[in-house]
């Protein structure tokens, strides 16, 4: 690339920056969006999203084993085949295969009992990470992020609510197009309400619960978008290309989805904090 081309690209960049700054001074929405991006860059929001994705992955492993072993025990208790139980629960593919394999084993109770403390420990570590992130976003320090029994219980409630919202949305979507639209609204409302309850336990300054509503709505909508991405992209990729890409490909797709969830969490906290500062 010649010196003249470099100068032209530099001039174009400066002109674009000047147009952005001009739009920022004239439009409050542009100024707010840029302020949100600048705040996210200043605290390293992408790094926080990766850290949360790691904690989510650590929680996902024992949770999946707990669900698989629990469904296997349930299949034996009701005298049904594991395939039939997973089909009634709306599960298929790799999950159904794992349930069948676990139900055929002789250590179902041992796996189920061992995973309960593992899930609680992983949930406590995830809540600690969430509290530190919210403390940095709201107060500039993570020292306020402490693990509490109430916070861990609310986090587990968020996870259960998310699963229940997905099941309710799937049931509503079976009817017609109106049911599909209402399923999206119900999923966003339930997950957003659960996150609002958790946000009140996390560090949030002196902001009242109403000031945390925008972040809760953003979390519900963002989690819905990630769920749709998983349904139409990640799940099909895992089921159809598992033999091609192997375990590493499946793990990479899963981690990418968890990073997106971590990004939604961080941006939701930043949105509430920025709105609170501007309101003051």
Strand residues, percent:
under 5%
Number of domains: 1
- Poorly predicted runs of 5 or more residues: 89-96
Computed Rg:
22 Å
> Order of SSEs, N→C?
HHHHHHHHHH
β-strand number: 0
Largest sheet: none
Number of helices: 10
Structure class: mainly alpha
Textual characterization of the structure:
With 280 residues, the chain is mainly α. It has one domain. It is built from ten helices and no strands. The protein is globular. Residues 89-96 have low confidence and may be disordered.
State the gist of this model.
This protein has one domain.
For this entry, give a set of tags.
about 280 residues, mainly alpha
What's the SSE blueprint?
Layout: H1 3-26, H2 28-43, H3 45-77, H4 82-88, H5 94-104, H6 108-139, H7 149-173, H8 177-201, H9 213-240, H10 242-279
């Amino acid at each position: 690339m010649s010196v003249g081309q470099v100068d032209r690209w530099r001039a174009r960049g400066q002109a674009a920056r000047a147009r952005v700054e001009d739009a920022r001074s004239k439009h409050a929405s542009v100024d707010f969006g840029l302020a949100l991006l600048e705040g996210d860059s200043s605290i390293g929001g992408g790094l926080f999203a990766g850290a949360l994705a790691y904690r989510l992955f650590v929680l996902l492993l024992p949770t999946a084993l707990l669900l698989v072993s629990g469904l296997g025990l349930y299949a034996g208790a009701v005298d049904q085949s594991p395939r039939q139980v997973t089909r009634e629960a709306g599960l298929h593919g790799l999950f159904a295969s794992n349930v069948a394999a676990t139900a055929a084993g002789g250590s179902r109770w041992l796996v189920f009992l061992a995973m309960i403390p593992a899930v609680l420990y992983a949930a406590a570590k995830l809540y600690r990470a969430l509290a530190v992130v919210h403390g940095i976003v709201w107060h500039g320090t993570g020292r306020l992020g402490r693990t509490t029994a109430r916070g861990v219980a609310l986090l587990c409630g968020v996870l259960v609510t998310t699963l229940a919202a997905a099941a309710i949305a799937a049931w509503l979507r079976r009817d017609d197009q109106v049911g599909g639209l209402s399923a999206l609204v119900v999923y966003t409302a339930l997950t957003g309400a659960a996150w609002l309850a958790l946000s009140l336990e996390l560090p949030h300054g002196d902001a009242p619960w109403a000031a945390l509503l925008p972040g809760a709505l953003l979390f519900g909508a963002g989690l819905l978008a990630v769920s749709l991405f998983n349904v139409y992209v990640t799940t099909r990729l895992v089921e159809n290309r598992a033999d091609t890409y192997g375990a590493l490909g499946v793990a990479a797709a899963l981690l990418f989805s968890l990073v997106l969830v971590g990004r939604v969490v961080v941006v939701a906290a930043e949105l509430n904090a920025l709105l609170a500062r501007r309101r003051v």
